[in-house]
């Protein structure tokens, strides 16, 4: 599966499987290196998706970055 088609949840699930497999220690060295590389790619993808979500959330909370979000009738 290509990384651009992987959701955050799928990436996390794959990372958990890779971590568990590597922690077992029964993986041949070359395969372990490939798994580690894939894990690092998935980790970077998750980080990127989290940063994007954080930015979008900040925009929502601050009315697209213009001013702090306030509910009607809320004191400043």
Structure description:
The protein has 76 residues and is an all-alpha fold. Helices cover 66% and strands 0% of the residues. The chain is built from 2 helices and no strands. Helix 1 runs antiparallel to helix 2 (29-61). The radius of gyration is 19 Å and the shape is elongated. 5% of the residues are buried.
Shape: elongated
Q: How is the biggest beta sheet arranged?
A: none
Low-confidence stretches: none
- Specify Rg, calculated over alpha carbons: 19 Å
The tally of beta strands, per DSSP, is 0
- Beta-strand residue percentage: under 5%
Terminal CA distance: 49 Å
Task: Spell out the key features of this protein.
single chain; 76 residues; mainly alpha; 2 helices; 66% helix; 0% strand; elongated
How are the SSEs placed, and which strands pair?
Elements: H1 8-24, H2 29-61
Overview in brief:
The chain is 66% helix and 0% strand.
């Amino acid at each position: 599966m290509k990384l651009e088609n992987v959701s955050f949840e799928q990436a996390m699930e794959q990372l958990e499987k890779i971590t568990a497999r590597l922690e077992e220690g029964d993986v041949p060295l070359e395969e372990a290196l490939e798994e580690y590389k894939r894990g690092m790619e998935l980790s970077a993808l998750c980080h990127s998706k989290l940063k994007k979500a954080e930015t979008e959330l900040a925009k929502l909370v601050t009315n697209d970055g213009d001013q702090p979000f306030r509910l009607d009738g809320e004191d400043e």
